[in-house]
Design brief:
- 43% of the residues lie in helices and 15% in strands.
- The chain is of the alpha/beta class and 341 residues long.
- It has three domains: 53 residues, 434 Repressor (Amino-terminal Domain) (Orthogonal Bundle); 126 residues, Response regulator (Rossmann fold); 139 residues, Rossmann fold (3-Layer(aba) Sandwich).
- The strands form two sheets. It has a six-stranded parallel beta sheet with strand order 2-1-3-4-5-10, with helices on both faces.
- The radius of gyration is 24 Å and the shape is elongated.
């Protein structure tokens, strides 16, 4: 069977698997020294590498050393406090374990799947933010290295066999919305964000809508906006029109960055946030407690979320028992919803 190799070319993991007559997952287990592989299969994979001069490459070095000493983490982008918090938590866990971190933002990549597959040759495991790649690509990555998905829905849909998930509990979004309705009398609420953008945003919207229905209110369609602070500023004219027309009295933003951008724009228009309009976010990024009024938010311990992801990866790499995890969230009440500052 031909691998399509030309003189001077380096084989990739799929070509090695083809030559040995095994799956890419088996090749990955052999060269990383994890999981159960029969002696016969281990010999076939090792022989394929040796016979085709692959030992001088990065793959051959990984086979000899069993480990790269590096974890990878993949995000849709890298800007903003949300990703900064996740990176810090992941990096702290990696430093404690004595390994390094490779960080990849996919927003500028033309061929995300190919770039991620190439990344698997440089790392021992990958933490992948939910929604970054499709299910088929995620499955292929999980064939090559241990994978932990950060975020996603509560049903674990799209998580490949053998991969793990660490996610936030968004159910307390219902508590946040119920607080606006019952404690502050805000019954004309709008959701700012695009639920279709990611499983996390969809989960927040679903819980938001459920809380409204629990109170006998019918949720309106979400007001679409991306998730950066600038997008909150851009959404302000639409929110102002709805506020002045009496159609809304509160906004539940999909994240803190959106909420903060909207807050800054509304304040510049003379709107008193917390009195004229209730406003809430999600994440509890550091700026949320520093602005005036402080931002009421659904706090998620982002550093814990990514730190647990790193720990789960290390367990998978070492062959230790590990299971998916759910990180709790909590409502933090500040002045932007109408509570005393």
């Amino acid at each position: 069977m031909s691998s399509g190799k030309r003189e001077g070319d380096r084989l990739n993991v799929r070509q090695i698997a083809e030559l040995a007559g095994v799956s890419t997952a088996t090749v990955s287990r052999v060269y990383r020294g994890i999981g159960q592989v029969s002696p016969e299969m281990r010999e076939r994979v090792s022989r394929a590498i040796a016979e085709h001069g692959y030992r001088p490459s990065h793959f051959g070095t990984a086979l000899a050393n069993r480990r790269n000493g590096t974890l990878g983490i993949v995000f849709p982008g890298l800007s903003g406090p949300y990703f900064g918090e996740l990176i810090e938590g992941f990096d702290r866990a990696a430093i404690a374990a004595g390994v390094s971190v490779n960080i990849l933002g996919t927003h500028a990549l033309r061929n995300t799947a190919a770039d991620l597959e190439a990344m698997t040759e440089r790392v021992d495991g990958l933490a992948v933010h939910a929604g970054v790649v499709d299910e088929e690509t995620l499955r292929r990555l999980a064939d090559l290295v241990p994978v932990v998905v950060i975020g996603g829905d509560s049903g674990g849909s799209g998580i490949p066999d053998g991969a793990l998930q660490v996610r936030s509990d968004h159910s307390h979004m219902r508590e946040l919305v119920a607080h606006l309705i019952h404690d502050h009398g805000r019954t004309r609420l709008a959701f700012l964000g695009r639920p279709s953008d990611s499983p996390d945003i969809q989960s927040r919207y679903d819980n938001y809508a459920a809380a409204l229905r629990d109170a006998g209110l019918e949720p309106a369609a979400p007001i679409h906006a991306w998730l950066a602070q600038a997008d909150g500023v851009l959404a302000a004219p639409r929110i102002l029109d709805l506020l002045r027309a009496g159609e809304i009295d509160g906004v539940v933003a999909a994240n803190d960055e959106l909420a903060l951008g909207l807050m800054f724009a509304l304040l510049s228009e003379g709107v008193t946030v917390g009195r004229d309009l209730a406003l809430t976010g999600v994440d509890d990024v550091p700026m949320s407690s520093l602005v005036s009024p402080g931002l009421t938010t659904l706090a998620r311990p982002l550093r814990d979320l990514s730190g647990i992801a790193a720990d789960l990866l290390l367990d998978l790499i070492a062959g230790r028992p590990a299971q998916s995890a759910v990180v709790p969230s909590q409502v933090i009440r500040r002045g932007s919803c109408g509570c005393p500052s």
